[in-house]
Every structure is written in C-alpha cells, then in structure tokens.
Amino acid sequence: MGIVKISEGIHNQLREASSVFDRSLNSQAEHWIKIGMLSELHPAINYEEIRDLLFKYKNLTIEEIVKKSKK
Q: Burial code of 21-57, b = ≥16 C-beta within 10 A, e = fewer?
C-alpha cells in the first residue's frame, strides 16, 4: 500500500462524499478510482453500466472485470 498525494480541493470533495455515502475516506477514493479506470477502459459505456459491472464482479480486480466484460 502506498501514499497518493491529491489536491486539497479533491480531498475535501472526497471527505464530503465519504460522509454522504457512508464510506471511509479510503473506500470512497478506491470507489472513484475504480469508476475512473473502468470509464477509461470502456469509454462507450455509461455510469450505470460501470456500476453494474462493479456490483456483478464485486470480488474481482479491475483487470479481471475488464477481461470478463469484454467477452
């Protein structure tokens, strides 16, 4: 596990979102990172489809989700 430096503005938004969605700060950051990675790897799908992939394959890594979703 490493340290990621982010801007104060993003950190504040992260803190607010983690409170709203009842997630830890780290869990919220990881959630946003997964969504971002999947949206870059699958630019043709929308947020709801990305969310559905995360629910369907909740125990898999992003790499495994990408492999399964391309089949």
A: eeeeeeebbebeebeeebeeebeeeeeeebeebbeeb
